[in-house]
Specification:
32% helix; Ubiquitin Conjugating Enzyme; 5 helices; 179 residues; ATP-binding; single chain; alpha+beta; UBQ-conjugating_AS; nucleotide-binding
Length: 179
C-alpha cells in the first residue's frame, strides 16, 4: 500500500509530455463533473492552467444557526493533489467551533481522513456540512465549542451577534449578513 502511494506521488510530480500536471488534470476533471449545491457558488481565481490553482467557494446556508450568512473559503491545490487535500481557509472571521479566528478549518476529510478517492465535490459538501452539523468535539475555537456544548440558546445568540459584525469575548467578527 505504501509503495503504491509513493509511486503515485512520483508520477504526480512528473508532468506528462504535452500535458498539464496530474493535479491540473484531476482538478479539471473534478470541475467538469461538479454538481454544486444551490447554497454554494464557486469562483476560479487561478485556473487549472496555472501551477497552483486557487478557487473561492461562497457558502450561504439556508438553514440552521448560520442561515442568512455568506461565507467565503479559499481552496488552494498543490502539485500533490489528489494525494493530498487542498489547503482550505475561511476568509471571514466567524464564530464557529470548527473554524478558528484565523480561518483555519477543522474538517476530518481535510486531514486524517483524506484519500485520493475524495474530490472537490467531497470538499464542498464537507464545508457545507460544517454549517449544518456543528460539532463541539475537537474544536479549533474552544470558546465557541464550550458555548455550543453548554447552552445552545446562548450559542445561537452568539452566532447571530457575530454574523452581524459584533464583538464576542473581545474578538471582533466580520459582518456576513445583509440584515
Amino acid at each position: 500500500m505504501f509503495k503504491l502511494r509513493e509511486i503515485q506521488k512520483q508520477k504526480q510530480s512528473k508532468p506528462a509530455p504535452n500535458a498539464g500536471s496530474n493535479t491540473n488534470t484531476r482538478l479539471h476533471r473534478d470541475l467538469k463533473s461538479l454538481e454544486l449545491p444551490p447554497t454554494t457558488q464557486l469562483h476560479i481565481v487561478r485556473g487549472t492552467d496555472d501551477s497552483i490553482p486557487l478557487l473561492q467557494l461562497a457558502v450561504k446556508p439556508d438553514e440552521g444557526y448560520y442561515k442568512g450568512g455568506n461565507f467565503t473559503f479559499e481552496l488552494l491545490f498543490n502539485e500533490q493533489y489528489p494525494m493530498e487535500p487542498p489547503k482550505v481557509k475561511c476568509l471571514n472571521r466567524i464564530y464557529h467551533p470548527n473554524i478558528d479566528t484565523d480561518g483555519r478549518v477543522c474538517l476530518n476529510i481535510l486531514r486524517q481522513d483524506w484519500t485520493p478517492a475524495l474530490d472537490l465535490q467531497s470538499v464542498i459538501i464537507g464545508l457545507l456540512f460544517l454549517f449544518l452539523e456543528i460539532s463541539g468535539v475537537d474544536p479549533l475555537n474552544k470558546q465557541a465549542a464550550e458555548t455550543f456544548n453548554r447552552n445552545r440558546q446562548n450559542f445561537a445568540h452568539a452566532v447571530r451577534q457575530s454574523m452581524g459584525g459584533n464583538t464576542i469575548d473581545n474578538i471582533h467578527y466580520d459582518k456576513v449578513t445583509n440584515f
